[in-house]
Design goal:
Helix content is 73%, strand content 0%. With 93 residues, the chain is mainly alpha-helical. It has one domain (3-91).
């Protein structure tokens, strides 16, 4: 493995246990902007893409967890007899 490839692989590793949703989303936005601008080397592009995919998965997991917590709170409060859909579910109909 070349030093460039090794450096690209190391930069793609994230410690997701140490960041919150907002930080992950900010990092993801920066990566998207970098990739959209172009001009990156192939190795850097692959590293950025890999890191972006990890962040995307992390953000989806956090959103899923939040959705489940909200549904549980709504069910536990007995104030609502039916599940309240999220805005994205309503838009998709």
């Amino acid at each position: 493995m070349t030093k460039q490839n090794e450096k690209a692989n190391n930069s793609a590793k994230l410690d997701l246990a140490k960041i919150d949703f907002e930080t992950a989303l900010e990092k993801l936005q920066v990566i998207v902007e970098d990739l959209e601008q172009g001009g990156l080397s192939l190795d850097k592009t692959l590293a950025e893409f890999s890191q972006g995919m990890q962040l995307l998965k992390f953000c989806h997991q956090k959103l899923d967890q939040a959705e489940k917590k909200i549904e549980l709170m709504v069910k536990e409060n007995d104030e609502f007899s039916k599940e309240v859909p999220f805005a994205s579910e309503v838009e998709g109909e």
